[in-house]
Design a protein that fits this description.
This protein is α/β, with parallel strands linked by helices. The protein has a domain of 239 residues: NAD(P)-binding Rossmann-like Domain (Rossmann fold), CATH 3.40.50.720. It is built from twelve helices and 13 strands.
């Protein structure tokens, strides 16, 4: 018998983060049947208190008791809490503690409290791009690919996702079964994306000029944050209605955003603020970029006892930026009726509007 979704309690871990806050707003606006939305995060976004049926809970995902206090009594958990760090800004142990131990805590509380439904926010980096530069061109969830991880973030996300999927079908309190699925966004963009803010500030320092470093033929899949949030909402609903069908499955997050290099894609928004791309081809040979990336890694290691040196460019981020990784799939549509809620035109308009707000902030200084 299909469970009634009226009067349910949804818990969103990491609900004040970039994706999490968009997801919470979408739940509040589009899921009137949900009686309470618990937003669990270490740092609270007080603006979310204005939303109906939202309850903010401050706590640490790596603390089992904090997770238990936040999740107990909920019906559905959407686990977005994650520490994203590919630059070495935080110790590897902390990345593992948040991403792996935090996920262990969520699974344990689901088991102990009889919470049947868990949607996990994974990452494309569970698959790749790998550091060997092997392209993933228009791949889907079943495409064979040489997965190779040697960095804390993709290692932790890969381990966490495996734990979540392995837990599908596990018996939990009350003799019920736990049902889980995992969503893998490609590069998320949209309002509130901190990396876009960094690119904007960096461009100001170079006179609104962006110097091409990666060939335009290198393509990446990008997906708008609103569509990723919408996919989570649909997956949470349908996991309850069709648990045997969605349980244990992974889904890439996708929409109609164009395939472009990271630099060219970012220019879709930055050009609205007068930024311009310098050159149609890379100005620096790849081997020089790689040497700079290696030098940055060496400096990071040497300076570690004294300060945190974590530039954007390192061997891993260079490999990701210079390796084609695009997805072409309709699995989410087939399994739970997903269609992008926002067109590319609307996604671009919203993101450009947000980027332009930086201009107003600069003028008011």
């Amino acid at each position: 018998m299909m469970p009634s979704q009226e009067g349910q309690v949804y818990a969103v871990t990491g609900g004040c983060g970039f994706l999490g806050s968009h997801l919470v707003r979408m739940l509040a606006e589009r899921c009137r049947e949900v009686a309470e939305i618990r937003v669990f995060d270490l740092h609270l976004d007080e603006t979310l208190r204005t939303l109906s049926n939202v309850r903010l809970i401050q706590g640490d995902i790596s603390s089992l008791q904090d997770v238990r206090d936040a999740l107990a009594g909920s019906h559905v958990v959407i686990h977005t809490a994650s520490l994203v760090d590919v630059w070495g800004r935080v110790p590897a142990s902390k990345v593992t503690k948040v991403n792996v131990t935090g996920t262990e805590n969520v699974l344990r509380v689901c088991e102990e409290e009889g919470i049947q439904y868990l949607v996990y926010t994974s990452s494309m980096e569970v698959v790749g791009p790998n550091i060997h530069g092997d392209p993933f061109y228009r791949g889907n969830e079943d495409t064979e690919y040489r997965v190779y991880h040697d960095q804390p973030y993709p290692l932790s996300k890969s381990k966490a996702e495996k734990m979540v999927l392995d837990a599908n079908g596990r018996k939990i309190k009350g003799g019920k079964s736990l049902y889980t699925c995992s969503l893998r966004p490609t590069g998320i963009y949209g309002e509130g994306h901190e990396l876009m803010r960094q690119f904007y500030r960096q461009g100001l320092r170079t006179g609104r000029r962006v110097f091409r470093a990666i060939p335009p033929s290198t393509e990446h899949g990008r997906v708008y944050v609103g569509n990723v949030a919408w996919m989570h909402v649909l997956a949470a609903r349908q996991l309850q209605e069709r648990p045997a069908h969605l349980g244990g499955q992974v889904y890439f997050c996708y929409d109609h955003s164009p395939y472009k290099s990271y630099e060219d894609f970012n220019m879709e928004f930055l050009s609205a603020c007068g930024f311009r791309m310098i050159s149609s081809r890379p100005l620096v040979p790849y081997f020089l970029l790689y040497l700079v990336a290696l030098l940055n890694s060496l400096l990071q290691w040497l300076l570690h006892p004294f300060c945190t040196y974590a530039p954007i460019l390192n061997p891993y981020t260079l490999a990701v930026a210079s390796t084609t990784f695009t997805v072409q799939t309709d699995k989410a549509q087939r399994h739970f009726g997903y269609q992008p809620l926002f067109s590319w035109e609307e996604s671009k308009r919203r993101t450009v509007s947000w980027v332009r707000s930086f201009e107003e902030a600069e003028k008011s200084r």
